[in-house]
Write a structure and sequence with these properties.
Helices cover 27% and strands 22% of the residues. By secondary structure, it is of the alpha+beta class. Keywords: ATP-binding, Disulfide bond, EGF-like domain, Glycoprotein, Kinase, Membrane, Nucleotide-binding, Phosphoprotein, Repeat, Serine/threonine-protein kinase, Signal, Transferase, Transmembrane, Transmembrane helix.
Length: 746
């Protein structure tokens, strides 16, 4: 929708303290003969208060217009009710007071009416991911923000929970009564949502409402009083980035409407369109005005120059010079001021000798200093590596290596220099992808092996065990459909994991991105589904200790050189004992794949992995994404969309075109029924991964009996030998699959 003005009002109450530095008062901020203040707030160009004093937007729109009226006793806009508390041309940011979201319930668990969300959709605004945090307050609450980055829907969320008010600590926002999380980078047109897991029924006596809001990180300090005292529609400061126009610098510079003034430079944002202007070094002011960036006289303030007491500072455009005072001259090459004794009676030879002696002395001191610095630096590097090794869980991993309970003997500890060489010092050209726990680089070891090196995000104390957890779990897995861990490096600030290299990308790319070189046939999809199911069956039932993966999704399924499926990313996985039926944790996972039963109970079972696999199976059938804003509101979730289509007997209306064209109709119906069972809301009624494997193998055998039978026997024999597990049944894999595949056709 078009914008005719910024929908904000400005406050007379003093400008809120901000890290965004306003333009210095001695430099012009607005166009000539234009007002530059509304109350206590300075309004710098390209923003303006009247016609002709602000920058016209694309197609003549007025995104930069700020209306200021004094008739009501304070400046305000003619429409809208958002407060502006600061505008910075130096950082290209604006601070606006936004409304929080409230989610309240009565004693019966019924949600109370709430005001509709007030949205700020100015196209020039992008919410700052460095200055703000998403916060949820409540003992049975969760908050999430969703918005668009380059036309893609992006989510971020967190859950706040507690059983009593005594669990809550003032000033702490780490999950008990309050949680906070980062804002995705480049987010526009966002909305904030507040929801409850159990409608506050179990905490209603002391906490009846939950809150969700975005706030400037340094402006929020949690108090337990927020749980009992309603804070209805309180406004909070939020920082936004803003840009000019719709084109990046390279194109904008050649247009007549390019507005970066003299002594300024053009800067592109990382995401989105447009550009912003900055004064070059040595200049300050408003870079959006023709002569807005003016020279700084560094000589007027001592802290702005490094001239000594023997020198005088001389200002020049964009910089300054330090010249020697009278009676001194500049000695080269040290460029230091020394007394000028040319008027004395001493022989020039004496001065020459003094000069040579001074130079030799300085060179000697420099040499000694360099040697000492090199020795100190080497010792510091060794000490620092030991510090990082300990900080990144090296001692914990050593205990795991020496323990008889975990088979991690084959894990290699790499040194940092070896992995730096393997990745050209972690060159951006070697990046394979980025995820929630780190960045993956392609590398070549000294023995010629191609590997994938995962550079983890900084390991804090809170997720140290999670990092070691991935090493221990992957070191115990021996399966051809699971990514193999080769080793790790802990002596860097950012820890590294080294995996086998899987060359053909993720299953998500082949399903949801155009790929004419290798389209997925029906047989390939059925084969990949069987391999994923086989890996999960191994994790649940055949590994040395049962393993719950906890993040099965198409982006965590890799395809090797023969397009075999490889399950990856075990950062959130859990080892469980043989008699353990579930693990209780804070809810973690990916929207669209998350088991609803786990979301409600926080108890993750092997059937939760089955649910996530069911979503992947539906992706293979339909080619649809797990969450999509292009579907109707009730069909945004792929699982709900699929179940509804099955119920209405519209299965073949939602299938991928290639599946409809190449597959056998009865095979598709059997696989769809299997997916439907995997997505059952009651986990106990879902099949086990053992049953899923045998049913998929039975379908594949019907298409290619002998070949698949031999592969199945080989895979089963290989998995059993590697894990030391034996079955008492004498049936073949296919016989078991056939006997367990009783499918009712719709």
């Amino acid at each position: 929708m078009g914008f005719h003005r910024i929908l904000v009002r400005l406050t007379w109450v003093g400008v809120i303290s901000s890290v965004m530095a306003a333009t210095d008062t001695q430099f012009p901020s607005a166009l000539p003969d234009c007002p530059d203040r509304c109350g206590d707030l300075q309004i710098p160009y390209p923003f303006g208060l009247t016609e002709g004093c602000y920058l016209n937007g694309t197609n003549g729109t007025t995104e930069f217009l700020i209306a200021c009226e004094n008739s009501s006793g304070k400046p305000e806009t003619k429409t809208g009710d958002f407060l502006v508390t600061n505008i910075s041309v130096q950082e290209g940011q604006i601070e606006i007071m936004m409304y929080s979201r409230i989610d309240c319930y009565n004693s019966t668990g019924t949600r109370l009416p709430h005001e509709p969300q007030r949205m700020l959709t100015n196209p020039i605004f992008t919410i700052s991911h460095t200055k703000n945090k998403l916060v949820s307050v409540g003992c049975d609450s969760f908050a999430y923000v969703k918005g668009f980055r380059n036309d893609k829907l992006i989510y971020s969320s967190c859950i706040s929970d507690c059983e009593s008010k005594s669990d809550v600590v003032n000033g702490s926002c780490s999950g008990n009564g309050c949680c906070q999380t980062d804002i995705p980078e480049g987010l526009k047109n966002f909305t904030v949502h507040a929801r409850s897991l159990n409608n506050h029924q179990y905490v209603w006596d002391f906490n009846r409402c939950g809150y969700a809001f975005i706030i400037r990180e340094d402006k929020f300090n949690f108090s337990s009083a927020y749980l009992t005292t309603p804070r209805k529609y309180k406004t909070l400061p939020v920082v936004f980035d803003w840009t000019i126009g719709s084109e990046k610098c390279d194109l904008a510079r050649n247009k007549s409407n390019y507005i970066c003034g003299g002594n300024s430079t053009c800067v592109d944002p990382k995401y989105g369109s447009g550009y912003r202007c900055e004064c070059i070094k040595g200049y300050r002011g408003n870079p959006y005005l023709d002569h807005g960036c003016q020279d700084i006289d560094e000589c007027k303030v001592k802290d702005n120059n490094n001239c000594t007491s023997k020198q005088k500072c001389v200002n020049k455009p964009g910089s300054y010079d330090c010249l020697c005072n009278e009676g001194y001259y500049m000695a080269e090459p040290e460029r230091v001021c020394v007394p000028d004794r040319s008027a004395g009676k001493s022989s020039p030879a004496i001065y020459l000798a003094v000069g040579i002696g001074t130079i030799l002395g300085v060179l000697f001191l420099i040499s000694i200093t360099l040697v000492l610095c090199k020795v100190i630096k080497k010792r510091s590097e060794i000490k620092l590596k030991k510090k990082f090794f300990k900080k990144n869980g090296g001692l914990l991993l050593e205990r795991q290596l020496s323990s008889n309970e975990n088979n991690v003997q084959n894990t290699k500890l790499f040194n940092s220099k070896e992995l730096e060489k393997a990745t050209d010092n972690f060159s951006k050209s070697r990046i394979l992808g980025k995820g929630g726990y780190g960045t993956v680089f392609k590398g070549m070891l000294s023995d010629g092996r191609i590997v994938a090196i995962k550079k983890c995000n900084t390991v804090h104390k809170g997720n140290l065990k999670q990092f070691i957890n991935e090493i221990v779990i992957l070191s115990q897995i021996f399966h051809r459909n699971v990514v193999k861990l080769i080793g790790c490096c802990l002596e860097r600030e950012i820890p590294l994991l080294v995996y086998e290299f899987i060359p053909n990308g993720t299953l998500f790319q082949y399903l949801h991105e155009e790929n004419e070189d290798f389209p997925l046939t029906w047989d390939m999809r059925l084969k990949i589904a069987t391999e994923i199911a086989g890996a999960l069956f191994y994790l649940h039932s055949a590994a040395a200790s049962p393993i719950y993966h906890r993040d099965i999704k198409s982006t965590n399924i890799l395809l090797d050189e023969k397009y075999r499926a490889k399950v990856a990313d075990f950062g959130t996985s859990k080892l469980v004992t043989i008699d353990q039926t579930h693990v209780t944790t804070l809810v973690q996972g990916t929207f669209g794949y998350l088991d609803p039963e786990y979301f409600q109970t926080s108890q993750f079972t092997e059937k939760s992995d089955v649910y996530s696999f069911g979503v992947v199976l539906v992706e293979l059938l339909t080619g649809e994404k797990p969450v999509s804003s292009t579907r109707s509101e009730e069909g945004r979730s792929l699982s709900a969309y699929f179940i509804h289509s099955m119920k209405e007997n519209h299965l073949f209306d939602i299938l991928d075109d290639r599946v409809k064209k190449e597959s056998d109709k009865e095979e598709v119906i059997i696989v769809a029924n299997l997916a439907k069972r995997c997505l059952h809301l009651n986990g106990k009624k879902r099949p086990t991964m053992r049953e899923v494997v045998f049913e998929l193998q039975g379908i594949r055998k019907a298409s290619d009996d002998q070949q698949n039978y031999e592969e199945l026997q080989y895979a089963r024999h290989e998995e059993i030998e590697a894990s030391g597990v034996s079955f008492t049944s004498t049936q073949s894999c296919f016989e078991i699959a056939s006997s367990s595949s009783s499918i009712v056709l719709p």
